[in-house]
Amino acid sequence: MTRLTRSTLDRLPATVASPIGRPLSDVGTAVGTAIGIVHFGPGAFHRAHQAAYVDTVLQHDPRWGIAAVSMRSRGTVEALEQQDGLYTLAIRDAEPAMRVIGAHRRFLAPDAAAQTHALLADPAVTLVTMTVTEKGYCLAGDGTLDLGHADIVHDLAGAAVPRSVIGWIVAGLAARRDAGVRPFVPMPCDNLASNGAKLHAALVAFAQAGDAGLADWIAGEVRVPSTMVDSITPASDEALYDAVAATIGLEDRAAVQRERFAQWVIEDIGVPLGPDLAGAGATLTGDVAGYEKAKLRILNGAHSTLAYLGLLRGHASVAEAMADAALAGFVDAMIRRDIVPMLPAVAGLDLDAYRLAVLARFRNPAIVHRLDQIATDGSQKLPYRLGDTLAAHRAGGRMPAHVVAALGGWVAFLIARAQAGVAIADPAGARLAAAAHDADPATLVRRLAEAGLGLPPQVAGDPPLLAAITAAATAAHERRWDAVLTAGNDS
Prior knowledge:
Blueprint: H1 27-31, E1 35-40, H2 44-48, H3 50-58, E2 65-69, H4 75-82, E3 87-91, E4 97-101, E5 104-108, H5 113-121, E6 127-130, H6 150-156, H7 165-179, E7 185-188, H8 195-208, H9 212-221, E8 227-230, H10 238-248, E9 256-258, E10 263-267, E11 283-285, H11 288-312, H12 318-322, H13 325-339, H14 351-362, H15 371-374, H16 378-395, H17 401-420, H18 429-437, H19 441-451, H20 463-477, H21 481-485
Parallel strand pairs: 1-2, 1-6, 2-5, 3-9, 6-7, 10-11
Antiparallel strand pairs: 3-4, 8-10
Helix pairs in contact: 5-7, 7-8, 8-9, 11-13, 11-14, 11-16, 11-17, 16-17, 17-18, 17-20, 19-20
């Protein structure tokens, strides 16, 4: 089958949006070549999310083409290059759609270091974004730069080709300072709390280790916005490639897929980003933390609850769990009664509308989001997803029955996995399995609280709370669902 490229764009059916609109009068000129954004880590999420926003900007402002930089492998950038940067974004929803994205103009593999250095120094590039996962920032447990990280050690030794995104950005900023050119705006797009502040501090710390003057310049001149990004993006697979080919009539080995919902919240730092991302649907705000907290507690808290209780009830995916009316009703009640009342007001965010949107996303049958994937790393996630809401209620003398029941479900889940001999996917998996193997719910709740694993340590010193979680865990362990899923209904 013929491959998707600029020369074959005119074969797209009218139902598929192209990156330059229809009719296609002059494909080569209309797509453009200008680079205004450098992006590190052009994986599926970036191409399905940020690149779609930029593609919308390019419809009326051609200056903001993206240079895609891969620091580790050639596969993605080679696939993009073979297709002139074009690929299909498939929207998985009750009303599916496909759109060809054309935001990427340069494709830089790990061996293209000289070109990457040149782009970072180019005054036309005003925005440098990244999706490198949380570990890609080389941070220590306290959120500061890990100066002992192997990649940071390598880069501080003066290597011509940095291994870390921190090393690359500082190298680019140093070139700007030396040339008397205004710095670009570095913008992290990974879901790391306060990601802008953490990245800025890491850049200063890296520079300080080699050039105090550069560190001072970065501290004073460089602004780094915090962001929050959200859209469920399943991995690309052969089924996706086949579906895309059947729809557009062309082969596309760089296709990506996501749900229709997409959110990009960007801190307003008082410095122009360059592209008009707000005009493309992004939210500029002075309160990214408020959006982060709402997402963490409403979306992520509900996700974890569905995962543990859903698996105990025999479900495999989020959509399947949401088809369980009793479980779906419990999760909705938890958000309304326990979570939303403990969230501060956020300008521009309607919390009730957000709740409804989250629940609608969970019901999307076109997205298969496996519960066992969401159930990983509970000891790390639950203190923030559910524990903070729990602590806020207890500080006011209240007992949040739905959150308590959700935590009890996690305890019952641990016992079920341990007794079945199934590995618990968690950084503390071995400790959790050992604690749960011979334990009844009461014993395990006490052990978890005393160890500070998943349950806040203060639980051990709060007898009413300890008793409530124990009762919930016992009910879930015994599969007494009337007791679990009607928790708090009379409150």
